[in-house]
Records
---
Amino acid sequence: MTTRRQLLTAIGMMGGTAALYQAMTTMGHASETQYKGAPDLSGARSGASVLVLGSGLAGMLAAYELSKAGYKVRILEYQNRAGGRNWSLYGGDTYTELGGATQKVGFAQGHYLNPGPWRIPHHHRTLLHYCKAFGVALEPFIQFNHSGYVHNADAFGGKPVRYREAAADFEGNVAELLGKAIDQKALDAQLTSEDKDKLKEALRGWGMLDQDMKYKANLFSAEHRGYDRPPGGGVDGAPIASQPFPFRDVVSSQIWKNMAFFMNHEMQTTMFQPVGGMGMIGKAFARQVQTMITFNAKVTKIHQDKAGVTVTYADTASGSVTEATSDYCVCAIPLGVLNQIENNLAPAKKSAIAAVPYSNSVKIGLQMARRFWETDDYIYGGHSFTSQDIALISYPNYHLFEDGPGVLLGAFASGAGAYRLAGMTPEQRIEAALAQGSVFHPGTYRKEFQTGASVAWSRVPWTMGCCARWNEETRKTHYQELVKVDDRVVLAGEHASYVGCWMEGALLSSLDAISRLHKRALEA
Ligand SMILES: Cc1cc2nc3c(=O)[nH]c(=O)nc-3n(C[C@H](O)[C@H](O)[C@H](O)COP(=O)(O)OP(=O)(O)OC[C@H]3O[C@@H](n4cnc5c(N)ncnc54)[C@H](O)[C@@H]3O)c2cc1C
């Protein structure tokens, strides 16, 4: 039996979701990409040169399009590889984080962890365009799986339940309560009697209610939440309905957050991933600009004057310091790092660079000896969510049904949980991931574990954070200053976009930055 208080809580939650969605739309997070094709960079002055700082996707796209237009381009990159946050860790790779801890990755051949980006929405048209142009094979990323688990320490006695069960019960109960509100004439001011009839019919169909507008254990609700005994053949073929959970538990589980998450425009299906790991995109971009890149080049100073731009960089292997000069510069270095690089940019731009904090996140890959989530739990890709620090585990979308190992994402932590995990040694992080992830697969999780790797983004030397975190205030005060062409220098990267923390944002920012820099060059 549902109470009035439960009704109010549920409606409040629905309101909260709507408000959140509206806020996200205002911030631009839920809108379509603005991609309109490659920019027109015709008329470049012969011999005009551009230094691009950083070979993430933003830097490499700038270099690719500018050199196609006739500019003489050179890229300076701190690491010994291109791609930046677009990166996959494979068996044999070594990674050293800030603080000095080094991990040697031990994943089996063909398996990997994507420490950064891992999914591509179908409407990120810039990225999809260049993936096709540069020959990156894409496959579906299984984003939404009704069979994944949801776990909240405050609900269902701390036991995980299937997403489908909790989501069906949330919708069923909300439908029943709304039906009651209609019958009690609470909505008479808003609805005509014809509206009320139509809405009741909709609620019955959407919420799987019976003829009396009740959400109950029966074969109708079982069509959404699943069965105690599924339909079969022969003598025992008749299905047996399952029992809905108490609504109090359903609300406490915060399943609505997961439901709202899947409704977020950026998170909607269809999503994609490159075959062989996200790093394939960085590699494909790098093939287009490889002759332009100087690796192991740590930019330490950016200076511009009437004559041009001078960039000082140190060779990370030898320590030797060199100066490179050009007419123009596209700086695609993340803001936290750029803020520490000596420069003579305009004071307002410097303030903007310093004003934007970065989020943190931690990802942990765990290789399991067998794909028990498939064989034992019938989970093929998708996520299981938890209120613990690891936030979720995500099941691999490749090598489905194979015998042998699989690498699952054992954590995608953010906020306080990410800082707690980042404060641990890599070994302690794996231990925490195993302890917390065991809630979903008790008995098998630890037993099948073979090897793991983790990346805490606050400890990544070349970003010192996950992504730029703008808010309404910083957008208002600093965004236009940040993106403005400052004489000969323009900034590009996900931080210079309204599609923050998406590769699409890095690419859109890059195309916009070089279009304006080109215009500036033509006017010179
Ligand atoms: C955990 C996580 C999850 C994400 N998930 C997704 C996702 O699912 N889908 C998606 O589309 N996006 C996702 N993103 C966001 C995406 O990774 C970024 O938006 C994008 O890769 C940023 O590209 P960029 O070119 O702006 O910066 P970067 O890729 O960071 O490139 C910057 C480059 O500058 C170099 N550099 C730094 N300092 C110096 C220096 N001093 N001198 C020279 N070079 C320097 C760096 O080495 C790097 O190569 C995620 C990011 C993270 C961290």
Note: Residues 124 and 504 are 6 Å apart (CA to CA).
---
Amino acid sequence: MKNTFGQSLQTTIFGESHGPYIGVVLDGLAPGIEVNDDFIKEKLALRRPAGAISTARVEADEYTFASGVFNGKTTGTPLCILIPNTNTRSADYDKAGRVARPGHADYTAMCKYHGFEDYRGGGHFSGRITAAIVAGGAIAMSALEKKGILIGTHIYKLSDLTDREFSDIKNDISALNKKSFAVLDEEVAEKMIKAIEDAAKDADSVGGVLETAITGLPAGVGEPWFDSVESILSHVLFSVPGIKGVQFGAGFDKVCERGSNFNDAFRNEDGKVVTATNNNGGINGGITNGMPVIIKCAVKPTPSIYKEQQSVNLNTLENADIAIEGRHDPAIIHRARVVVDSVCALAVYDMLAARFGTDYFTQE
Ligand SMILES: Cc1cc2nc3c(=O)[nH]c(=O)nc-3n(C[C@H](O)[C@H](O)[C@H](O)COP(=O)(O)O)c2cc1C
């Protein structure tokens, strides 16, 4: 479906980094969902660049609803959000003389679109498009919150630094969602910020690992094989530019251990089936078991770095060196965290609508 994701709720994204607009269309939303502008703006602010750890290209993200909202509520017809691009500096890209940025999509975009692609600022492949995902994701997220489903992400690893894992998940999520730099341990946060600043000073970039928790999901959501909860979530997570790995529960960290150590024992807690540990990350057989869904995502270092690199000129196919100009993030991870929350919200909304029907979100 190219630029569209989902079955019951279909999310379509469009736009280019230096075009007039980027945006999102959500088709299949329940009618009557409250559209809270403060909530959408709060989420967009978490993605917006700030300070030396982000790109100098700051956009106000002053969006408009082109359709699908009436009297502050969703109508249930396609909801379209338009976000103008106002702070572009396309000359930086003309100067690059079409030398492919290593690690970016310049070369693969040319292979697919035969040179017709708008390459300025990474065009359709730019992290800029994720603002539209965040705006759309905020609508899904506010509907999920009304159902008691919370999503939060923190920077678990960056360079050689590690945050603590989730413990009291609900409180951790609510603390994280107020933080512009999402790290649970403040001391670690300061060190991580310094590591990003140091990479920037070296004309370089740095990556890491995000950890996401989704709580409040009822047991019994998902499909057994191709549309397992892991399949749907990893599909949408791998759509986020820069994500190169996805793990559920203890995943790669613990799979080499014995079953007796990996299995999550079932217990009855006040009449509810729970598990004593959560190595399976809240999913068994592709279906939610009612425990929090825990995901780790590997986020690569930003490809556009100012250090000189070897590449190829896309016009002549000759070897060429590239020293990138333009404005770039020395790390993607701290801005990607809310993008990860947003794609998870869209996917979880889609799975719940498939399981319980469109009106589930507006039923008491
Ligand atoms: C929020 C966000 C911001 C990003 N900022 C930049 C950036 O400033 N410079 C850059 O080269 N890549 C940036 N990226 C990553 C590229 O868009 C991505 O690496 C590129 O499209 C290639 O895709 P891939 O890394 O998934 O293979 C950003 C990604 C996200 C999610």
Note: The first strand starts at residue 4 and ends at 5.
---
Amino acid sequence: MEELSAVRHKAIAALADAGVPSPGVDVDLLLCHVLGISRSELKLRELRGDSFEASHREEFTQLVAARRTRIPLQHLTGVAHFRYLELKVGPGVFTPRPETETVVQLGLDFVVQQALEAPNCIDLCSGSGAIAAALASELPGSKVWAVELSDDAIQYTKANCLPHQVTVLHQDATTLPEDLEGIMDLVVSNPPYIPPNAIPREAEVRDHDPAMALYGLGDDGLQIPRAVAGQAMKLLRPGGYFVMEHAEVQQDSAATMLREAGFTQVSGHEDLTGRARATCGYAPHR
Ligand SMILES: C[S@@+](CC[C@H](N)C(=O)[O-])C[C@H]1O[C@@H](n2cnc3c(N)ncnc32)[C@H](O)[C@@H]1O
């Protein structure tokens, strides 16, 4: 039987050869998935010089071959880690990204600063439900809604949000019912925002994230974000807060968009790598 360490190193070389951006992490997560163990247990077994059990060989070989074709790691394991949550993901739903964790934090900071004990929060364009589920799980006492239009993504929105008592709405996030207007303390959104001529280079994104999750329509990709900002203004109570994710190059357009929608104290925010990836604003006190 081959040593686990040798199997691991061969798989890393195979993924690196296929241009996979983070081959070491990916192989570790695939091994953990196949063996049903944590990363610390994997490290321990490797250091101990444990063997790789033959019964797992075929499944692991198939997963490495699939990852070499640039199928996203999260589609192969079926999970994505987001803040404190393990979310269900797969084909048909946008894989949540680390920068969106910062977007959630901006919303949480507002709730803490305002000392809101039972805030009403809504996540527009929810996809996997990452934002809504994170808000609900980290804000005990909150009431959270998630809104997603895609027929393919909605099963994931429900699977990830319903365990956290989030109300899931399967509809267009830019035309919400009037009974939700003026009742929200916080609106958070990571809408589609890529312009039509900026097709992503990364195969995992270009070929596996749904087009509906990527492209924001209009020449600048901001047609849906603009409509989302307009809807957010209607949903918020006076003094409520809106947080929206966007591309780094859209920082100025996003600020203009929020001001035009009527938001005040508009501010841009960076992600953990220092890129301007979110813009926030307050609904005015009327
Ligand atoms: C960039 S993804 C973000 C998903 C999730 N919020 C996240 O951060 O991981 C955008 C999502 O918006 C959805 N979407 C696109 N247009 C929409 C609309 N008009 N109403 C509701 N959802 C929409 C897409 O299906 C996709 O799930």
Note: The pocket of S-adenosylmethionine is lined by residues 94, 96, 100, 125-128, 130-131, 147-150, 153, 172-174, 190-192, 212-213, 224 (CB under 6 Å).
---
Amino acid sequence: MDIPIDIFGKKLKNPLFLPSGIINDIPNHSMAVKAGVGSLVLKSITVDPREGNPIPRIAKYDSGFINSVGLRNPGLTEAKKQIKLFLEKTNTPVIISVFAVKADDFQRLVYEFSELCPLAIELNLSCPNVSDEFGEILANKADSSYKITKLAKKQAKNIPVISKLSPNTDNIGEIAKACEQAGADAVAAINTVSQGMIIDINKKRPVLGNGKGGVSGTGIKPIAVAKVYEIYEAVKIPILGIGGISTWQDAVEMIMAGASLIGIGSAVYEKGWNVYKDILFGIKTYMEKTNISQIKNLIGAAHEK
Ligand SMILES: Cc1cc2nc3c(=O)[nH]c(=O)nc-3n(C[C@H](O)[C@H](O)[C@H](O)COP(=O)(O)O)c2cc1C
């Protein structure tokens, strides 16, 4: 079932995508391809390999999950080989996500991965489980978000760059604007909400190996919708809306807030891979009933004209 949408000068078969990190290992992202996503974002890659945080790294609560994976990944050299193989095997457009705590490393990652010609490169400026060299999340500040985005754009050649933002700020519109001014081709929001904790009342200890983790899933949806709404008022570039989407109604809400593409992450853990087909069917039926011929006519519909 197709609901075509144009982004970065390319046509995607639908606006739904798998956000970064929901699947960890690169070859396993083929599950999202089979599920019919319009595009997908790979797990964030760092320059050096990372083992990740102590297990357990993810835990469920009644409205979603908390995770502290700690960017477990094989590192640039190995990831580049694996991603090259993955891209050769799939026709689904792929976005490569990169993470660093230093500007130099961001530049190197973007330079290396742009050679693989992905749909786009996403800058993870917002991982709540790893801090930058100053001990803060990069996307919490407009100036560091601007700086990293600008440097990345220079290395990306003609590959589009997406800046992924954190919800843990009260000025996300300003930060998104800074990314746009630095040349970002899109912004993605939101990363997980920082930080949550679940305590095992029998063991009297936090459940996660790392104690605290980023919160995802249905419980964060109103935060995500509000942040995307705010960004839409601040920028003209497309928004990838993510956070707690698990039904077609959620997806329509996110599109009306201003998102062009819709990320569905934690809902895959709750509902399985059919969630994409179910949401697409719901959006399509809604569009038919309300006489909307193109999904782009719904983007930002909740804003005053
Ligand atoms: C287990 C797990 C790992 C994640 N790893 C990454 C990551 O490596 N890079 C990133 O940008 N976001 C990562 N995220 C955040 C998601 O991409 C997404 O922004 C967030 O989960 C909100 O969407 P959701 O509520 O649909 O899951 C991760 C989320 C989860 C649950």
Note: The chain has a mean pLDDT of 95.
